[in-house]
Design goal:
Helix content is 37%, strand content 15%. The chain is built from 16 helices and 13 strands. An eight-stranded parallel barrel has the order 1-2-3-4-5-7-10-11, surrounded by five helices. 54% of the residues are buried. It binds 5-hydroxymethyl-3,4-dihydroxypiperidine (IFM). The site of 5-hydroxymethyl-3,4-dihydroxypiperidine has 8 residues, from loops.
Length: 467
Amino acid sequence: MTTASAPAPLTLPAGFRWGTATSAYQVEGAVSEGGRGRSVWDTFSHTPGLTHQGDTGDVACDHYHRLDEDLDLLADLGVDTYRFSIAWPRLQPTGRGRPEPRGVAFYDRLIDGLLERQISPMATLFHWDLPQDLEDRGGWRNRDTVHDFVTYARYCFDAYGDRVTDWITLNEPICPSLHGTGGYGHAAPGLRLGGPAITSAHHLLLAHGDAVRAYRNSAAAGRIGITLNFGPVAPASDRAEDLAAAARVDALQTRLFADPVLGRGYPDLLVRHWRELTDMGFVQAGDLERIAEPLDFLGVNYYKSWVARAAGLPPLADRVAMDMGAVLEPPPGVPRTGFGWGVTPDGLRTLLLDLRHRHPALPPLFVTENGCAYPDEVGPDGNVDDPERIAFHDAYLRALAEAVDAGVDVRGYTCWSLLDNFEWAAGYSQRFGLVHVDFPTGRRTPKSSFGWYRDLISTHRAAGVAA
Ligand code: IFM
């Protein structure tokens, strides 16, 4: 493995925490072991034609069996924090009932292994893998799922609350709701329902707020927050149609979840559109207060920003899809990742500053995901050189440091991802890892970005500017 020359130091505050992130279905595999139940992603990925080349998470990175090897990689990387998710169907195979002891034991081993290596565990309770049995009862469209989630969350707080330092209730609630239930059917559970997708979004938020309150009432003594993904957008021109299209996309992609979580309720502009699809009767008295439970931190996932050009409103049922009647493109002239996403580091600075500006009582921020996919290959010398990924993380971290300089309280950064993994409907076609995974054999090869990130972390630690 080659290690790039040491990067110029970034000015980040003392105690800034460095990490990497993964999620259960994307890395674990072993989907039929340890009593695990099925999730919506097992169903979706096994439905012919829905994922790239029919890829599934059945084996994924085989992290379930290679746990010690992956923990050693984390120790070698020198991270302060590892962000992983707990698979609800591993803990409660049907989403209800007594916890499955083998599932509980797997995450005990993971958490203890992190602590033995002086890495603080950051656990996400829900990263899209809803137990299929709950989906069969209506999934997040069913208000009962809120109660089921809080029961599951309590089990987790009781089992791991003495050791997990940071909890994340939900990752990117837009994915299981608007993308999976109301968009174009390209993600689990693969429905195109319009109004009921909005019901799902609301119930996810309610589950989040209630889980935070359950946490405060538990014996656990760490921090709790939620992770939202943000897609900042600028209008393609100052034509009224483009301005309106950008405002709609902004409401959907940067404000739909952040505003209610931070106590501002749903953006009016969205509610006006939604009124054609739903009477919003699912929002009951007191719900918005329950959703706005105070947080210890807000997790920010940021990859790219967009330019929006008006394309005419889509048919009614599609109005909850992410483009909201706009053509979304990377800003002109920016490089693209292997996935075709724009490389837009400045958007991170703007996003962090905007969040602080819009929300005077903003809790501390934590960048819980940021990364890029390129078609990395193991070279003839056995190394994987990925200079684009190094340049990507370097640029985004510099934008983050500028926001911190301007006064935004950002506590840490967990890059996506430790390992190449199952990228949802794109299967194994997109490699986001600092570590290359040869999927047929499971063999891990740290990429040059792994060495770069390790050097960056140790330089900061040595300089005394990071914990
Ligand atoms: O792989 C996903 C992750 O599950 C959620 N955030 C975005 C990543 C890259 O698409």
